[in-house]
């Protein structure tokens, strides 16, 4: 991890900012926090290298709009997006905009720390990406056509009952396929599944 790397936290929830600042501070990260995306955008041109950790739902400028504006401005910072339950479609959109990871709240501290280290070291780890991609391809290939259909419906945010109607199967069968998809893709939660599906190309561009 570069010695001058910083973590930029953007969240309108003061308690969440304080919690993240404490966790990252004792874990050895240099941290700057912002209560609004507009505040961060004003400071962005003067900030050094680092990783952005932003909530997806914020007033005025949300996490999706923030990523769009950074892309338009040519600001290249790795981004980790935090989502709430039921934000899977937004998580997919964040991945399409370049977010390298999506964490569904509540998430384990170690998962965030791992994601940050990966983000900040991604240049040094670039040579490992082909083998990682091959492993993901193998996971995707292990899915049956029905499992892949269920996965695509899940990461589109559809409920089990809607998936059952669409696939002409019972809600119980959807639960079975869902559990199988999560296990085969080695996904921790639906946001993680969305991230893996995006990286594998299963959702298209």
Automatic annotation (TrEMBL):
<protein>
    <submittedName>
        <fullName>Two-component system response regulator FixJ</fullName>
    </submittedName>
</protein>
<keyword id="KW-0597">Phosphoprotein</keyword>
<dbReference type="Pfam" id="PF00072">
    <property type="entry name" value="Response_reg"/>
</dbReference>
<dbReference type="InterPro" id="IPR011006">
    <property type="entry name" value="CheY-like_superfamily"/>
</dbReference>
<dbReference type="Pfam" id="PF00196">
    <property type="entry name" value="GerE"/>
</dbReference>
<dbReference type="InterPro" id="IPR000792">
    <property type="entry name" value="Tscrpt_reg_LuxR_C"/>
</dbReference>
<feature type="domain" description="HTH luxR-type">
    <location>
        <begin position="136"/>
        <end position="201"/>
    </location>
</feature>
<feature type="domain" description="Response regulatory">
    <location>
        <begin position="6"/>
        <end position="120"/>
    </location>
</feature>
<keyword id="KW-0804">Transcription</keyword>
<keyword id="KW-0805">Transcription regulation</keyword>
<keyword id="KW-0238">DNA-binding</keyword>
<feature type="modified residue" description="4-aspartylphosphate">
    <location>
        <position position="55"/>
    </location>
</feature>
<dbReference type="InterPro" id="IPR001789">
    <property type="entry name" value="Sig_transdc_resp-reg_receiver"/>
</dbReference>
<dbReference type="InterPro" id="IPR036388">
    <property type="entry name" value="WH-like_DNA-bd_sf"/>
</dbReference>
<dbReference type="InterPro" id="IPR016032">
    <property type="entry name" value="Sig_transdc_resp-reg_C-effctor"/>
</dbReference>
């Amino acid at each position: 991890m570069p010695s001058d790397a910083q973590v930029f936290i953007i969240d309108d929830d003061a308690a969440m900012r304080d919690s993240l600042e404490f966790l990252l501070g004792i874990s050895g990260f240099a941290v700057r926090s912002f209560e609004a995306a507009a505040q961060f955008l004003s400071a962005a041109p003067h900030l050094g290298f680092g990783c952005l950790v932003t909530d997806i739902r914020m007033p005025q400028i949300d996490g999706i709009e923030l990523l769009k504006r950074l892309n338009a401005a040519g600001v290249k910072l790795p981004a980790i997006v935090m989502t709430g339950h039921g934000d899977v479609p937004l998580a997919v959109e964040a991945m399409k905009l370049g977010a390298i990871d999506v964490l569904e709240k509540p998430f384990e501290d170690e998962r965030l720390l791992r994601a940050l280290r990966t983000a900040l070291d991604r240049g040094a780890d670039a040579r490992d990406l082909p083998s990682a991609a091959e492993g993901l391809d193998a996971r995707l290939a292990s899915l049956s056509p029905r499992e892949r259909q269920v996965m695509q419906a899940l990461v589109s945010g559809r409920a089990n009952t809607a998936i059952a109607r669409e696939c002409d199967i019972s809600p119980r069968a959807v639960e079975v396929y869902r559990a199988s998809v999560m296990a085969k893709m080695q996904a921790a939660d639906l946001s993680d599944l969305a991230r893996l599906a995006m990286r594998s190309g299963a959702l298209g561009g």
